[in-house]
Each structure stands twice: as structure tokens, then as C-alpha cells.
Write a structure and sequence with these properties.
There is one protein chain. The chain has two helices and three strands, in the order βββαα. The protein has 77 residues and is of the alpha+beta class. It has one domain. The chain has a three-stranded antiparallel beta sheet with strand order 1-2-3, covered by helices on one side. The radius of gyration is 20 Å and the shape is elongated. The N and C termini lie far apart (42 Å).
Length: 77
């Protein structure tokens, strides 16, 4: 989920539930002492936001970063 602080406007979604908008689209929310309302709006937010096409495990990213930072010399193989 995008960072709510990156929204450029806010809207009241329910009592004590604030939605954060970017370019007119709901991108985040915050609730004060309203856990059920927060869960309902989180489900709606998940439904509205696009799903990433492909994710890469963090371990694979670290492996690639280490390999790029410390290349293996031919004599080490």
C-alpha cells in the first residue's frame, strides 16, 4: 500500500476515519479508535488499488546486490 502521507488531499470516510487521496483516488487511510471501520476500509482500499504484476523475494534482491557489489574473480571459481 502506498504511504498515506503521499496523498494530496483528505476525505472523511466515516466517523474518525480519514481517507488520503492522490489525483482523486483513495491511496491510504487512518482511523482513530475505530478498528472495525479501519478493517472494512482497508478491504475496500485493497480492492481498489492495483496489484503489482510481479514481486521478487527480498533474499533474491540481497543476493543480486551482493553479487554486483562484490564480483567473483575467475580464480575464485
Amino acid at each position: 500500500m502506498p504511504d498515506p502521507s503521499s496523498g494530496d488531499d483528505t476525505v472523511e470516510l466515516a466517523k474518525d476515519v480519514t481517507g488520503f487521496l492522490r489525483a482523486g483516488r483513495l491511496v491510504g487511510l487512518a482511523a482513530w479508535n475505530r478498528p472495525r471501520a479501519m478493517l472494512r476500509w482497508m478491504a475496500e482500499l485493497e480492492r481498489r488499488l492495483p496489484v503489482p504484476g510481479r514481486t521478487v523475494p527480498a533474499s533474491a534482491v540481497r543476493r543480486r546486490a551482493l553479487t554486483a557489489a562484490h564480483p567473483i574473480r575467475q580464480d575464485q571459481v
